[in-house]
Design a protein that fits this description.
Structural class: mainly beta
Keywords: Aspartyl esterase, Cell wall, Hydrolase, Secreted
Helix content: under 10%
GO molecular function, one term: pectinesterase activity
Protein name: Pectinesterase catalytic domain-containing protein
Mean pLDDT: 93
Number of strands: 20
Strand content: 35-45%
Largest sheet: 7 strands, parallel
Oligomer: single chain
Number of helices: 1
Radius of gyration: 16 Å
Strand order of the largest sheet: 3-6-9-12-15-17-18
Subcellular location: Secreted, Cell wall
Main location: secreted
Length: about 210
């Protein structure tokens, strides 16, 4: 199944999917757009074996959203941002978690990777939370990793990387914000989650305890 918004690169914000439902699962779907393609508004959401095409803030919102075996395809544009997660308060049990995903160029634009500078995202709200686990990071991802969002602080967010591979996966050049973290050993990551985010259970099938 495909969800497509073909408004085009110059149209601005144009959702292909706006998901406000709790306990939803998308499996084997294509979600295609050019800006703000997937609005994961709230609740527990799961996207597995799907693919998304976009250029700016592909996935945004304040849901507790898990992305497994997900193809994240950048269309051709000079600056690309994958996420804009909108966790507003430290008590919010929300965030975006990517595991075994591919952050790369769309097949149609794959030969133009050198013309693109991509980042994992930017904090739409102060307590933005994004985890990228065991994923492939292609070469057009800028070493800084993350961008600022206008009028949002960068001292309260949490951005985590663990076990990623690929030419863009080296974390040495990431921005030096307090909450940008790279873990090299699974026990360290699990300890961090248990102490700071006990409502995230990282296992073969990731779950969010929203109660």
């Amino acid at each position: 199944m495909s969800f497509v918004n073909d408004a085009g690169l110059t149209a601005g914000q144009a959702n292909a999917v706006r998901n406000v439902a709790n306990n939803t699962i998308f499996y084997g779907c294509a979600i295609e757009g050019y800006q703000d393609t997937l609005y994961a508004v709230r609740g527990s959401q799961r996207y597995e074996n799907c693919e998304i095409y976009d250029t700016v803030d592909f996935i945004y919102g304040n849901a507790a959203a898990t992305f497994l075996d997900y193809e994240i395809y950048a269309r051709h544009r000079g600056i690309v941002t994958y996420t804009a997660q909108g966790r507003e308060r430290p008590i919010d049990r929300s965030g975006f978690l990517f595991q075994r995903c591919n952050f790369t160029m769309s097949p149609a634009n794959y030969g133009r990777k050198s013309e693109v500078k991509a980042t994992f995202g930017r904090p739409w709200r102060a307590y933005s939370l994004v985890l990228k686990i065991e994923s492939y990071i292609d070469s057009m991802v800028d070493p800084i990793g993350w961008l600022e969002f206008p009028d949002q602080p960068t001292d309260k967010l949490t951005y985590v990387e663990y076990g990623n591979v690929g030419p863009g996966s080296n974390t040495d050049g990431r921005v030096k914000w307090p909450g940008v973290k790279a873990f090299h050993h699974l026990p360290e990551l699990l300890l961090f989650l248990s102490e700071d985010y006990p409502w995230i259970s990282l296992s073969h099938n990731i779950t969010w305890n929203l109660n």
